[in-house]
Amino acid sequence: MKPKIVKKTKTKAKNKNNSQLELTFLENIKNNKNENRKNTSFIYKNSINAISRLILSSFVIVSFFYITPIFIDFAEKNFNTKEFTNNSKKILAYTLDSKDRTKEDIEISKEEDLLIDIFSLNDLESDSVRLSASTIKQLFEDTDYSLKDVRKKKLVKPVALTLLPAEIKMIESTKKRKEFFIQIILPLILQENNNIRLDRKTLFNIINKNNNTDLEKEWIEKKFKQYGVSSRDLSTLKIRLDEIPVSLAIAQAAKETGWGTSRFAQEGNALYGQWTWSGEGLKPKEAEEGKGHKVMKFNVLQASVRAYQRNLNTHSTYKKFRKVRAELRDQGKPLDSLELSKYLNKYAETGNQYVEVLQKIIKQNKLKDFDDAKLLPSSIDLESLI
After folding, report:
1. Taking the domains of the chain in order of start, what are their residue ranges?
2. pLDDT tens for each residue of 43-94
3. Nearest-5° angle of CA 157, CA 160, CA 164?
4. SS3 90
5. What DSSP string runs through 173-208?
6. Residue pair 239/104 in contact by the 8 Å Cβ criterion
7. Which of 4, 20, 97, 244 has the largest count of CB atoms under 10 Å?
8. How many CB atoms lie within 10 A of CB 92?
């Protein structure tokens, strides 16, 4: 009977071992399931966190690029203390009031960009000879150039003098001195207006074309610089690149130089008294040493006329002047010097009194007779403008 008991005991032990193995196996399966659940939960949580971080980062980046320009613009408007005064005779860089900025109001970065062609003209004409008043008068007679004929025929001989004669202030007759001064500067003013007219013709041809050549593109870029149009806006260039009425240019030159007798006109060919802080110039006698502005100095009279036109055509002070001139163009009306002079009240410290003086000079000397005068051609290009 003992052997049977032993066998049963072994069978029970074996069954017990099998049960333990099954329990261990089941526990392992359960543990693996729990582990898998944990891993799956961990991966899911990590994925959610990664997506959240990605969304948050994208929001921060987008917000940064959206908010930064607004902040910069706010800072410039409220904390920028750097200002430049708009003195009328300056041809310097200037900034504009951001509250009243239009396409026509473009910042000009460098005086050199505006005047590069004027400085070049100075360099080419550095050895000019000053003719005496008697020699100039004889030249006018030899070429049959008189203001009486100009008023009648509207044609001006292309006599371009480079310097004013020193003897002009010795001419006792006020009438003769005025006529002599007008004879000298009239061809120069007409020449510069012709240059602008040719440029406007070129500009309109370029605007009306669908495709432009490389040379045309280079020409446009040069004009953008000369007229301070950093936005490269063609409509702004069109407004700025325009003529100054002849009668107005004569009147301002007469007022600023005392009909050619001032020190600035005699020593520096400065017909319009423009100021500079960086260019070559003459120091006003009343200015303190080492401080303040200088009056721009030119080697030739032609450069002074060109700089004057560039000043009126680019400086922010004369924005209204250019606007009214453009309106006259759009209406097909002539450029009226008496009307346009109203917007030059900031050219001098005397303000509206300065405008009254200009209008008085124009009327008393019948300067509007010269507004439709034409310069006789000295080249094929200019002949097309007559």
Report:
1. 1-81, 111-383
2. 555 556 666 666 766 666 656 555 655 554 544 444 433 333 334 455 433 3
3. 125
4. strand
5. -HHHHHHHHHHHHHHHHHHHHHHHHHHHHHHHHHHT
6. yes
7. 244
8. 20
Structure tokens at 212: 């432009």
The partner residues of 275 in beta bridges, in order of sequence, read: 90, 295
| 3-class DSSP assignment, residue 124 | helix
Beta carbons of 190 and 156 less than 8 angstroms apart = yes
Low-confidence ranges of the chain (pLDDT < 50): 1-11, 72, 74-88, 91-101, 103-109, 288, 379-386
Residue 77 backbone phi and psi in degrees, to 5: -75, -35
Tokens at 222, concatenated:
């040069």
Q: How far apart are CA 159 and CA 215, in angstroms?
A: 32
- Specify whether domain 111-383 bears CATH 1.10.530.10: yes
Q: What is the pTM of this model?
A: 0.70
Residue position matching structure tokens 């991966």 = 43
